[in-house]
Amino acid sequence: MSNATVAESAKDKDAKPEKARRPASLWSDAWHDLRRNKVFILGSILVLILILMAAFPSLFSSVNAYDPSTCDLSNAREGITSKHWFGTDNLGCDTYSRVIYGARVSVIVGIATSLISAIVGGGLGLLAGYYSRWVDVLLSRIAEIFFAIPSVLGALLFLSVAGRENAGAWIVVLSLAVLAWPLILRIMRAAVISAKNQDYVTAARALGAGPGRIMVRHILPNAIAPVIVTATLNLGVFIAAEAGLSFLGVGVQPPAISWGLMIGDARRRFLEAPEPLIFPALFLSITVLAFVMLGDAVRDALDPKLR
Known about the structure:
- 72% of the residues lie in helices and 0% in strands.
- By secondary structure, it is an all-alpha fold.
């Protein structure tokens, strides 16, 4: 064996222990756990299917060639057949195609509300936790005002003021996000207060880093994990809330298609035709369950106390 080969082999041996000694971060450990978590894998598959269904509903509805807006009263409340896989509703619309297109509203409301509440609540919580004093007092008191409003009652009031004719998916998102951000603010505030007293923040401040750089580069990456967990868990909550508001008649309005609207319309003739109620309710339950599974898996992976 040549001297070059021996030297190269020794270099490789020295490199391996150095790589092994490299400290793992919270995010790499979390991803390592998530890849081996069956609950996360199953939840991710279901969520991916739902997102594809919401983004490209024609891929799923084209198999039976029925348009969700085309209705035939002569086929009203028809049971499951080879033509109508989920039967038809009170107006003779194909329930299968309407269930597929109804996923879009639910996914939009769930994801958009979680993102808006996380961005607004997370940003304000970062400011409140870092600056403390009057900034913390002001933002915390404002958040407590919103906390005093019951979620469902507040959303009902907001949508009633907006008017049923204006109640689209984005109005529902706004009504839910207005009441959801204070929880994220509290979670982020507590995480920032804990992180800003760590040694790495003290060292960054001693080296002359400004407040903006400290918050964005040092505190935020170490305080955002609980916000991500809460936002992920809230996805299923917001989807169920949208369905409940639409069921009560104050959410999205026709001609929009929503699982909550379908359930509300089908409940009047449930004994005559149960399919138009059962299948939207089943898809709604599966969607909420998928996002809850995803949130539970992310929480288990990001919470060091559960390791």
